[in-house]
Amino acid sequence: MEVGQKVRVRRLRDRVSEVVVKRLGQTGTIKDFKMTDGSGVGVFVQFEDQSGTWFFEDEVEPIS
Fold this sequence. Notes:
1 helix
């Protein structure tokens, strides 16, 4: 995955707010990356309404 790539939110690992739960199945664009806990990578996904949130890399899937 890379910055600018379109992705779909496919699952949620942890308990999250209702706002994030509503993003399940939606598509957005990767805007940034960060190390999560020393062993994983998080991606910041921005959606069409210009809102965005962080996801674990295995919570999103690339859209072809």
